[in-house]
Design brief:
alpha+beta; 17 strands; 5-stranded antiparallel sheet
């Protein structure tokens, strides 16, 4: 129940809480009423039994006084209990505790009455047992025992159970109707708030506002939510404005810095003031501003940001002459050094990216923007700024890795589709191989060739006089006829075995052809070839032949004569196998009597080869048509969402396209693969470079 409340919607939770509360309250009330009713019924039964005991005692006192002479009177008194249908049995005891008279209800077998006890009553499992003393003139003259069954209680309980069931069912229905109406008071604003929050999270649109419907706590929550959105929107606008201003200030300060550096070489008298302004300015820039020797690259000045970016103190930058080279990443040392030397030779500014090693061992990507200060034709200083671009590089690497993984996953998904088709065909042929081998084993095991051994033993036994044995002995006379019949039977067995062996050989050759076809496609992946699209379609159908035949699907071929095309046949095969298998799944899901796949090859008006796969399966809704080629989208329970996406990408890479059309659910679908007669040059160049 707790799991159901936690996993359901707020609407369901409210309805369940209201219904559970009403049901539990009603159940407790009915249980209390039932409990008190049972107690009351027992008290009534007890009082009625005590009254009967008093009446019997009063009516039988005379009989007890006269002892044996009054036994018949006592029995008549007890017989009056027939009017009480709930009395099972009764017994009168004299003052000595001996049985004086008994009564048993009709249909009840007589049994030995219980021993007399002191005055008491007891409720047992199915009966009420009452012992009552009979007194006369203040003396106990006997005891009356009455045993009543609890049928009245059971009957009332059954009646109350039915009443409780009807009341609880009616109350549950009323509670359901009330909860269905009342939960909207709370769930509607909460659902609206959740939809607004999802819209804000998905669209990043902070101008959206939740609609307030009441002034209660929910209304206060919506007000605070809207205030929060307003605050976020204001801060977002302020951050954007601040970022724009910061970029402008950086550009302006960078220009001012260059002017200050040039002024520093000309105005020696104002060095201290300029130095102070310079440091104040550069320390406010989100990067390391530095100055170094143009030939040795020894730092003469670095801004305070150096400690934040790389963790080394400023003194270490300026004291160590080879600090820059020592802390460059080994893989970037040669390239960065060459670019700086080239800039020095050409006396031009540099902008390059490389990695440096921080004090804690981290690899930090930096972007260097530097310029040489030339005076009198001689470079006097190298000045620049280092910006930390590590996060940007990491994001680029992650994006590249995701793209590689997507391409690889798509490729594996496509190969899996082809391999699955091959396995279906091989499995089907292996069934035939298994049947043939079983038949051959059975025929060899039951062959009559073993009977020759008996004939040879008989002939060897009579070899001394073989002619007489064959002509006169009864066993010898039947040997020629038996051998003739046996030879005919063995000849027939030989023909049957040869037929099965030929069929077995054909099936094994078929398996070899299927595997060779798969190996051929796997081996030539990525190569542009000129081939017949009709042969490629037939290969794809052959890979799916077992599945299509097993499911009783008719393949209709509508091929027009088209020129040979230059394509990567592995990619085309991957697309075709996936389209044919998807058509099979769609037809199976539709469960129609007529199962049909139509494959059409033709040249369209744009002089491109158009190959379409049409099925009469479950069809595609207009909503899904817009996203069926999206990565990860699938309508199959065990689908991966790679097949059509990778197929569309492969078609695009070959200069073609993959599209889908359907009139709606239950009306089938058509997938159209459009390809140029020759592969684009860009594809051929990529393949050539990879080879």
């Amino acid at each position: 129940m707790t799991k159901l409340l936690l996993s359901g919607t707020i609407k369901r939770k409210l309805m369940l809480i209201i219904m559970l509360t009403c049901t539990v309250a009603l159940f407790l009330a009915c249980s209390a009423i039932l409990f008190f009713e049972i107690l009351g019924t027992k008290q009534i039964l007890k009082r009625n039994t005590e009254v009967m005991a008093d009446v019997i005692g009063a009516n039988s006192s005379a009989a007890l006084t006269f002892k044996n002479a009054g036994k018949n009177d006592a029995k008549e008194v007890l017989a009056a209990l027939k009017a009480e249908p709930y009395v099972v049995s009764a017994c009168l005891y004299n003052d000595q505790g001996e049985v004086f008279a008994t009564y048993f209800r009709e249909g009840i077998a007589e049994k030995v009455p219980p021993r007399v006890e002191d005055e008491n009553f007891k409720f047992e499992k199915d009966t009420l047992n009452l012992f009552h003393k009979i007194k006369f003139d203040g003396e106990v003259i006997g005891t009356v025992f009455i045993q009543s069954d609890l049928r009245i209680i059971k009957e009332r309980m059954n009646t109350y159970f039915w009443i409780m069931g009807l009341v609880m069912a009616s109350a549950a229905f009323v509670a359901f109707l009330l909860s269905l109406s009342l939960q909207k008071v709370i769930s509607t604003p909460i659902s609206h708030l959740a939809e607004t929050a999802n819209k804000v999270a998905n669209q990043k649109n902070y101008s959206v506002r939740a609609q307030k419907t009441s002034d209660d706590e929910m209304g206060v929550l919506i007000d605070r939510f809207n205030e929060m959105l307003s605050g976020i929107q204001e801060r977002d606008a302020a951050l954007l404005k601040a970022h724009t201003q910061l970029e402008k200030r950086v550009d302006e300060r960078t220009k001012e810095l260059q002017l200050e550096i040039r002024e520093r070489s000309r105005v020696e008298g104002e060095l201290r003031v300029s130095q102070l302004k310079f440091e104040t300015l550069v320390n406010s820039i989100e990067g390391i501003v530095w100055e170094a020797d143009p030939k040795t690259f020894e730092f003469g000045f670095v801004s305070q940001q150096c400690e934040r970016l790389l963790g080394y103190p400023r003194s270490e930058w300026t004291v160590n002459p080879s600090f820059w080279l020592d802390h460059l990443h080994p893989d970037d040392q040669i390239l960065a050094h060459e670019i700086r030397n080239k800039g020095l030779a050409q006396e031009k500014s540099n902008q390059l990216e490389y990695r440096m090693i921080a004090s804690d061992g981290r690899i930090v990507w930096v972007r260097e923007i530097s310029t040489f200060i030339i005076e009198g034709g001689t470079p006097q200083a190298l000045r620049g700024v280092l910006f930390d671009i590590t996060e940007q590089k990491q994001a680029e690497e992650e994006l590249e890795m995701l793209n590689k993984r997507l391409v690889e996953s798509s490729r594996h998904a496509g190969m899996a589709e082809v391999a699955t088709g091959v396995l279906h065909n091989v499995g089907n042929v292996l069934n035939s191989v298994n049947v043939s081998s079983t038949l051959i084993c059975d025929q060899v095991r039951n062959s009559r060739a073993s009977r020759l051994k008996d004939v040879v033993l008989l002939l060897n036994k009579n070899s001394t006089d073989l002619g007489t044995f064959i002509t006169t002995d009864p066993k010898g006379k039947i040997i020629p006829g038996y051998l003739s019949s046996l030879s005919e039977r063995l000849s027939a067995e030989q023909q049957d075995l040869l037929k099965e062996l030929e069929l077995l050989t054909k099936n094994i050759e078929h398996i070899k052809e299927i595997v060779a076809m798969q190996q051929n496609y796997a081996r030539v992946s990525g190569i542009i070839e000129s081939l017949s699209i009709r042969n490629l379609v037939e290969d794809a159908l052959q890979m799916n032949a077992a599945a299509l035949s097993r499911h009783g699907i008719l393949v209709v071929r509508e091929y027009e004569d088209v020129p040979v095309i230059s394509v990567d046949k592995h990619k085309v095969l991957q697309i075709l196998v996936n389209l044919i298998r998807n058509a099979k799944y769609a037809i199976d899901a539709a469960a129609k009597r007529e199962k049909r796949v139509t494959i059409t090859i033709r040249m369209n008006e744009r002089h491109m080869v158009e190959l379409s796969v049409t099925d009469n399966g479950i069809g595609i809704s207009q909503e899904n048509l817009t996203k069926i080629f999206s990565h990860g989208f699938t309508t199959k329970r065990d689908g991966h969402g790679f097949g059509l996406h990778s197929g569309a990408l492969a078609a695009k890479e070959m200069g073609g396209s993959l599209s889908a059309a359907s009139e709606g659910p239950g009306k089938g679908a058509t997938f159209v693969l459009e390809m140029p007669l020759s592969a684009p040059k860009s594809i051929e160049m990529k393949i050539g470079a990879r080879v």
